[in-house]
Design a protein that fits this description.
The protein is an alpha+beta fold. It is 57% helix and 11% strand. The relative contact order is 0.05.
């Protein structure tokens, strides 16, 4: 009893020391529980710390459990090794199966080719084992994995006689155990093929749906692209139309400025010999009328000048509006000039 307790204590110390570099220190108690449970349920396994070399060549010191695993009393045992990766328990353990050392009187064994669960080249247990495929925390454990391996390897044992090292007669008949293994192997292969067929059909259905969805999106994007092309063409036409309108406006502006310059150059200059205009007080009785007419005439001149400046700016008034207003103002100015002249003539007549 004391020896068993000491061995268990040594196992706990070994496991705790090996778990020091692992990534999840808060889950060391769970890993320790898994290791102790699998060692208790399968006493042929023992823990150790060794260097694991991955397929890429990287080496890591990992905790592992190794030993003989008996899958059936009628079948030879296998050498099982469970490596615990640094991400355990979130990543499943790496399981390897190898032939156990056979007695000298027995034919040597090797891993069977095309085994559904074990790679015959490396001995690694594939993810096709349901327990590894459905690995999840916290329901999965090392003991559960080993039990699942026992059930799977009992149905399809991975070891087969190595015919190259022993003389085997062609007339040798298969034993009932070998016949059962072959039958189970055929059934498992048929099941795997049927599963692959179902998965392929489901995947093909999803692919067809994705193709239809992408085709619809492609058609919508093509329609949007055509609409954007039409909008760009319309904007280009509008830009050309605006450029022509601006060119026409500049042409009208140039013509108007030339007309204004020509009209200003033809205006009669003030004659120095002409008598100065009469002052308002010179016209005794008609002074208010003359003053009002003269003020209106000068106001019309100021208005015409303001309209000319507005036309030169090009933003406040159009050419047609300018001509219209100038005509009206010229008519009013004519009447004001006539009224002022009439008032002066009536004064001189008197």
């Amino acid at each position: 009893m004391a020896t068993t307790t000491a061995a268990a204590t040594g196992t706990v110390v070994l496991v705790d020391a090996a778990l020091a570099p692992y990534e999840y220190p808060d889950l060391r108690w769970l890993v320790r529980k898994h290791v102790l449970a699998v060692l208790q349920e399968f006493p042929t396994l023992s823990p150790s710390v060794d260097t694991y070399t991955s397929d890429s060549g990287a080496s890591t010191v990992l905790l592992n459990a190794r030993g003989l695993l008996t899958v059936s009393s009628a079948l030879p045992p296998v050498l099982l090794t469970l490596w615990l990766p640094r991400e355990y328990p979130y990543l499943p353990p790496l399981a390897y199966v190898f032939p156990a050392a056979a007695p000298s009187s027995a034919a040597p064994l090797s891993l069977a080719r095309d085994h559904p669960f074990v790679d015959h080249r490396t001995g690694r247990v594939r993810r096709t084992v349901p327990y590894l495929e459905d690995w999840a925390v916290p329901r999965s454990s090392l003991a559960g994995l080993v039990r699942s391996l026992v059930a799977a390897l009992r149905m399809c044992h991975p070891l087969t006689p190595r015919f190259g090292s022993a003389v085997v007669h062609a007339t040798t008949r298969a034993t009932p155990v070998e016949e059962e293994q072959e039958r189970m192997r055929t059934a498992l292969l048929d099941e795997l093929v049927s599963r692959l067929g179902r998965d392929t059909a489901a995947f093909r259905g999803h692919v067809d749906e994705d193709i239809h969805a992408m085709s619809s999106i492609q058609g919508s994007l093509r329609a949007r692209g055509d609409a954007m092309d039409r909008a760009v063409r319309d904007l280009e036409d509008e830009r050309l139309r605006l450029e022509r309108a601006v060119t026409a406006s500049l042409s009208h502006r140039g013509k108007l400025l030339a007309w204004l310059h020509k009209t200003s150059s033809r205006a009669p200059e003030h004659d120095a010999r002409a008598p100065p205009p009469l002052a308002p007080h010179a016209a005794a009785g008609d002074a208010p009328r003359w003053l009002e007419s003269k003020a209106s005439e000068l106001a019309v001149d100021d208005t015409v000048d303001a309209l000319g400046h507005a036309l030169e700016d090009g933003d406040l008034i159009s050419f047609q509006e300018y001509i219209k207003r100038v005509k009206v103002l010229a008519r009013e100015q004519f009447f004001h000039c006539h009224a002022a002249g009439t008032s002066m003539m009536s004064k001189h007549t008197k």
